[in-house]
């Protein structure tokens, strides 16, 4: 449908497919996508799991797909990712999340347009039901594949689709999907209004990184919840509140008691009659914004350490050294000097959702998980330098091999030698 609607963009359309490899039909689905892309003369990109997963639930698999597609968009400088969610998906998600006690933010998903960093995720079929989509495909004799795992009762979403939603459609005296779609739209309007209100009063409620309890009490409960969420989000990415914990914070606002709520072994939320604040035993992270690395000039980093980049002429002895692994990954990396993007280097600290694929890894994985796997001291993870190119693609993290995409092939005219010196003071 996108192919037909935008003929002038066909040379820029790329078909993305993720093969989880969990079903007998997985490889057949992949072949179907590849063949269809070939017939339409469209480029395609097939993705697979980057590492063994500990869970195979719906949420884990969804995040796995989305992470891979977002990383592809970053590398290819694509700004729009189109997904095929439809009206049935809206209804299924709403019922699924209602059972969990979701807020308007959770109930208005999936949205027609959602921004993920610099990438816009668009869902143009979200107002069309699944039956009408398949009918149109059949009218034009366009083949499609049914995911057999959607018929399994192992997943809650499938049980909702096959049992609850089907019965609701039969019992409703009107267009159920249309009504639920309208409810989603109204919930999104209300969610945006709540966010706007909370952002406006945030400055009045927070001072010195603490919540002013007196000011918070003046607000409706829904805005108190939003302000608390926004405040916590600005504290640390390691803080993740449960619904029960958030309710405890809000009950404290109405009471005269003190608050002492544990989030981890070294982080607590405390409150008294005047303020709510975060008490932490760990050193505050020392992140910084992206800085340019100038070749042959040592860049002293905020806090501790320095980075130096040098361009070297590629010689056989150097290639032999690199390919033989005679490199200290904690201190240095050699990357390919091919292409203009490699010649402009930057350094920053990690961002939420950063993905990285070092040489030898089967695929991308979150930088946070790489750091955990390498048992990197949690107190320095937020200040660890991340080397990127001009497209903000990560090309090296000290302690890990350089990126697979910048691997030395041996035929480069020049290579870039990066060194990192960590200072104790």
Tell me what the structure shows.
This protein has helices at residues 2-5, 26-39, 58-76, 87-98, 104-107, 130-139, 156-171, 176-205, 213-217, 221-233, 243-254, 316-323, 340-343, 367-373, and strands at 14-18, 43-47, 80-82, 113-116, 119-122, 206-207, 210-212, 259-264, 267-271, 275-280, 291-293, 299-300, 306-313, 332-336, 345-348, 355-356, 365-366, 386-388, 394-396, 414-421. It has 425 residues and is α+β, with helices and mostly antiparallel strands. It folds into 3 domains: 2-178, 3-Layer(aba) Sandwich (Rossmann fold), CATH 3.40.50; 208-280, Uridine Diphospho-n-acetylenolpyruvylglucosamine Reductase, domain 3 (2-Layer Sandwich); 291-421, 3-Layer(bba) Sandwich (Phenylalanyl-tRNA Synthetase, Chain B, domain 3). The strands form 6 sheets. Strands 6-7-10-9-8 form a 5-stranded antiparallel sheet. Strands 11-15-18-19 form a 4-stranded antiparallel sheet. It has a 4-stranded antiparallel sheet with strand order 12-13-20-14, with no helix packed on it. The model has no long low-confidence stretch (mean pLDDT 87).
Topology overview:
Layout: H1 2-5, E1 14-18, H2 26-39, E2 43-47, H3 58-76, E3 80-82, H4 87-98, H5 104-107, E4 113-116, E5 119-122, H6 130-139, H7 156-171, H8 176-205, E6 206-207, E7 210-212, H9 213-217, H10 221-233, H11 243-254, E8 259-264, E9 267-271, E10 275-280, E11 291-293, E12 299-300, E13 306-313, H12 316-323, E14 332-336, H13 340-343, E15 345-348, E16 355-356, E17 365-366, H14 367-373, E18 386-388, E19 394-396, E20 414-421
Parallel strand pairs: 1-2, 3-5
Antiparallel strand pairs: 4-5, 6-7, 7-10, 8-9, 9-10, 11-15, 12-13, 13-20, 14-20, 15-18, 16-17, 18-19
